[in-house]
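To fix ideas, we quote verbatim one protein's residues and fold tokens.
>
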Amino acid sequence: MPRRPAAITRRRFLQGTSAAAGLAIVPRHVLGGEGKAPPSDTFACGLVGCGGQGGEDIRTYINHSGGQARILACCDVERNRLASAVKKFGADKGYTDFRRLVERNDLDVVSVATPPHWHALIAIAAMEAGKDVLCEKPMTKFIAEGRAVVNAATRYGRVFQIGTGGRYGAIKSKRSRMIHNAMRSGLLTDCKGAVIKRGGLAVRRYLGRVNLQPEPAPTHLDWDMYCGPAPLRPFNRHRHGWSHRFYWDYEGGGLTDLAPHWLDPMQWIYAKDHTSPVEIEAHAPPAHPECASLWGWVELKYADGFTFVLDGKEWGKPYDRKPERHVALSDLDEEGQKKVQAMPDPAPLIPFPEAVRTRKRAGGHAEAAHRAVTVCHLANIAIRMGRTIRYDPVAEQIVGDDEANRLVNQPM
């Protein structure tokens, strides 16, 4: 497929991303360092990815969460869409290379709303350059990327918020706070709880197409840059736009697009923000190597016995191995119940604007977002492998299965 002479090569791009971000000069008012106030109530934002979700996280997690935002810069690999976004948001400049956006020293926040195969690299580059980050879900395309994002947020002292916020509603429930305390107490060492998500995961609607034929890329689209760290395959319109979700190169089907909305509050309620399932079993036909395929259900068990179940309800026999059973105080003995009842309420989940001002961790922080999407990634790995997998949530490696592990840390 012919390429435009001016297009940057992906190898040069990936080699230069970290260096370019690291050279950015960041003023202390952006960093909010010692003796300096953090950004004011109006956050100067850069938007990377100007499609349907472009700007939504800024509106939800800043404007509707106690702050005000102004989008100063936009970036997209589609020039027509970029021009429309610059006009819509009143930005002062548009870019086709996000490195030029993150190196600006007048931005407080970068919002990442690209397809997921770009999320980790852009978020890390932005944090290296001293920006706080709003990131669309799913947080990453594969598990190892998530740990890299968590490490970057810690290393550079940046605030990170994922674009799912169900946990902010969950903490308002007295029952949810009780379950959270019971689970984080460590007293339920043989937990019988099983929480089942039945349907709503768009299994058939998110099926990819096989044997796609090459098509000329639109002249306004930089297809090389769109692919970025993903394999450079010939352009086909079904691999681009909304339907990119159907292909392993860019996302993980309905599981990674929709399950995070459900998992975000569930992870918090059941106190699993610090860990991951240890045994994952899927009921599914053989998967296609390139695109999202049919599946029935996935059972994900934690070390304490607690189980999440994702039941797509669109293929095969419905899940019937365990009855749904929520955690209750009665699961503990009398002494354990007293200990849980004496525990203070969980700490409030801090909205993004407050987190930026105070330099505290936001409610949808990087570790929580990473652990939530890891559930989705593990489910997809079990579906793709066609066998039960066992996972070490500390080492973040699949145990005794080199083939499955190649999906944990994928080549770019």
In short: The first strand starts at residue 42 and ends at 48. The two ends are 20 Å apart (CA to CA). Residues 366-385 form the longest helix (20 residues). Confidence is low (pLDDT under 50) at residues 1-39.
